Amino acid sequence: xxxxxxxxSKTMSHPAPxxxxxxxxxxxxxxxxxxxxxxSVDFGKRTVISTMDFEVRPGEFLCLVGPSGCGKTTxxxxxxxxxxxxxxxxxxxGERISxxxxxxxxxxxxxxxxLLPWRTVSxxxxxxxxxxxxxxxxxxxxxxxxxxxxxxSHARDRFPNQLSGGMQQRVQIARCLAQRPKLMLMDEPFGAxxxxxxxxxxxxxxxxxxxxxxxxxxxxxxxxEAIYLGDRVIVxxxxxxxxxxxxxxxxxxxxxxxxxxxxxxFLAHRHHLHGLLEGH
Length: 280
Ligand SMILES: Nc1ncnc2c1ncn2[C@@H]1O[C@H](COP(=O)(O)OP(=O)(O)OP(=O)(O)O)[C@@H](O)[C@H]1O
Ligand SMILES: [Mg+2]
Hints:
The chain is an alpha/beta fold and about 280 residues long. It has helices at about 1-5, 70-80, 120-130, 135-150, 165-180, 195-210, 225-230, 260, 265-280, and strands at about 35-45, 45-55, 60-65, 85-90, 95, 105, 185, 215-220, 230-235, 240-250. It has 9 helices and 10 strands. Residues about 10-25 have low confidence and may be disordered.
């Protein structure tokens, strides 16, 4: 159960991320963090993902947008190792993904099923430290820090059924951050949050993942969120799921909720992506 919740059961086999906070996270040199090599997924006779090819650079923040049912969650499940493609191959630092790993954390779209109901907020976050073998004496301070980051300090001893949807989602995010993964897979993680909490967590996730050189694949329906967070945005079309376009955002970090969203490049991307999705 714990392993499934954390989407991982293997011990760490890759070295720690090489990129520092100041390094260019979108470096094009060396092996890709993720490679999708002619990947297709069929459910019965229906092709849900059709011959998809793309790479994700180490430390890159990649956003995926697309209409409901175009295969975004299916894609994330492939990247997590929770399923394998019908044809083609998915690779993580050059190695075929065939099962979950603690190095690849997933924030599930369905947060209601992502927490252990018999554990408190801090107990659910502690799962990650238990799986990683972090000594008990070191856990408390780390949990406190994550509770603060996600605005949950006041709820540390509550159980999941005593939390709002947005709070449950924040527990799941805290647990994934605790895992210090090389890859964060996030499936519409901020959908249940109010606007202010959402903006705060957007900035925290970017800050923390950049500091640790974490590669992120982030799914959202919200075009502005995708442009604000992403180094690159991949736009997917449906029936079957396929890539319509890839857009390099090209706006440097740190970004600001006010000024970045008013940047002419931001507005141009928004206009362009909106037009692309409207036509599909
Ligand atoms: N296990 C499954 N068996 C059969 N069909 C499935 C299965 N999982 C997903 N599908 C179908 O595959 C398609 C893509 O589903 P997926 O959940 O990946 O879409 P999505 O892009 O994440 O949608 P949303 O934005 O609504 O979350 C859908 O038509 C869905 O009904
Ligand atoms: Mg989905």
